[in-house]
Amino acid sequence: SHRMSPGTAMDLAAALATAGAVLVLAVAVPLLVRRWRLLQRRSNVWPVAAPGLSPDTSLCVTDIQSSTTLWEELDPRVMDEALSLHNSCIRGLLSKHQGYECHTEGDSFVVAFPTPACAVAFALEMQVALMQLPWPEDLLHCDPCAVVYQSAAAHAAMGSGVSTTAPSDTAALAAAAAVAATTAATSLTTVAGLG
């Protein structure tokens, strides 16, 4: 039988210890980086504390209509881009309206607000902001994403053969929604006795 010399045994032990340390670092470092990024994201996403238990605390639940159909019909990269735009838009508006992200699952958010006025203002501004995003072209050509509103001018132009573009319709709708958002938030504040 072969016996290993003490020097060879020490070299082998050192090599195994080094390999083990490298393996531990290879696993631990990505996990720590991921955890750090998650904490960073949360600190940026949730600068507002969760609203306390109150009769005024209001929840807003969002969901992308026909998202299952869209995932089935479109390239996953298109939907990943669309979902990223959607999520960034929602998260970007939360602190402005004192919103707290309670839960997300897939394309759905559950968000809490300290007052109904904050929740309504968020929901209305979110609708306007979503209409103004640079959505992927492939998404805009799917049936579930078809134009559901068209200005009278755009409709008349289509009948005359003049080319119209969706962005002008979107801008008109966004402007109308912004006015509605301001009016609704003001009305809700008045009804709630806050204005």
From TrEMBL:
Source taxon at top rank = Eukaryota
One Pfam family named in its UniProt record? Guanylate_cyc
Any idea where the Guanylate cyclase domain is?
58-116
GO BP: cyclic nucleotide biosynthetic process; intracellular signal transduction
Which keywords fit this entry according to its UniProt record?
A: Membrane, Transmembrane, Transmembrane helix
Transmembrane domains' residue ranges: 12-33
Put simply, this protein is called Guanylate cyclase domain-containing protein
Organism annotation? Astrephomene gubernaculifera
> Which classification does the entry list for the species?
Eukaryota, Viridiplantae, Chlorophyta, core chlorophytes, Chlorophyceae
